Amino acid sequence: MSQRAVHKAMFESVALAAASVLQTSSTCTRKFIISSGESNNGVGSTNGPAFECILMKDFLKSLSKRLKGNIAGYENYHRVYVPEGQSPKFDPKEPLRVYVLFQHIQKMLSGEIAVIAETGYSWFNCQKLKLPRKCRYEFQMQYGSIGWLVGVTLGYVQATPKKRVMISCIGDGSFYVTLLDISIMILLIRNRQ
Q: Catalyzes what (predicted)?
């Protein structure tokens, strides 16, 4: 089967599942399975046509020709990006912007503060903070799941023997997922008094 026929077959499938698999065979160092079938676990199976020895770069190159451009993410990045060392000017009467908020957070940081960052914009902006010595920084990078921060803040407060000021940066969507945990925090604070 020619490479062109393979690519055509790949994109004509209604449900397309792709997986990259390492293989020790000397004839095909990479194996790329394309399947139009669906397994019991919903991940995909090789019940449909399977194409082997297709390099990932070839697949992605062909796929990129089929996709429509969407520059929204790029435009958003440029809209919120602030180069290091430059503080954008802002009018005190304009609405509060994220970069202005993080300028204020930067000024608040000391060795007695712990910064906890949620996935998303909060994490991206906290990564730009210059932490002073002994300032703690916690973030959840591996899974990228939302709602992590509120529970971590609760646990962090309980586990920290000394009083430590905490700055927890969370978006409204992530907060909404776990906002009921705040009631537990309030109960624990009342019990300390």
A: a 2-oxocarboxylate + H(+) = an aldehyde + CO2
